[in-house]
Specification:
mainly alpha; Arc Repressor Mutant, subunit A; three-stranded antiparallel beta sheet; 3 strands
Amino acid sequence: MTKTLRQPAPPANVRRNLLKDRAYADLKGRILNGDFEPGTFLSERQIVGWLQMSKTPIRAALEKLEAEGLVRVSPQQGILVREMSVHELADQFEIRAALETYVVRQLAGRLTPEQVSQLRANLAAQERSVRANDIRQIVQLDAEFHILFARFLGNEEILRVMEHLRGKIHRLILRVHNLNPDRHATSLGEHRGIAEAVIAGDAALAVRRLEEHLAIGQQYVLTPRRR
């Protein structure tokens, strides 16, 4: 009879990192999807109950979330889910405008047929989500649309920064789309205009359309009430 060899258990430090990563991904997902309103206070005891793990990986995850500006940890008050300030939001959009306009300028007229197909597939998926009024999917595909260009450029540092910036405002964009259903279709139209300018090789038009798109998005994020 052939014996089944047991795989050795991973070292303790590997297990801790796996738990920390799991706690981080779970908590960040809940925050970005709006499960916790900004201004909500959480406790370690609550999080331990949700995640069924010890405080050590949870504290490590909270440190990372605090560094990203998503929470503030206070020994006296607990864990505060942060709202970004107007100044922070303005800074975010300034950085996005600088990076994303650079990216589309570099890519204009240089996309491969495969990249064009990926871009158009994303736009088609956005249209289906708009028709279905699937807000979470709309916002996810919106993020993917912007990130695609950075992937096409192949600059890993720009990609890393753009993913980080987009993650920080994900919940605010989700709130905008929840409060303003008309924004679904207008945002899709703006995306189409940017994509077609890049595909056609018109860098100046692509940059102008992207700047207009980000400016409109910033206005909605700063005043996300129903219009």
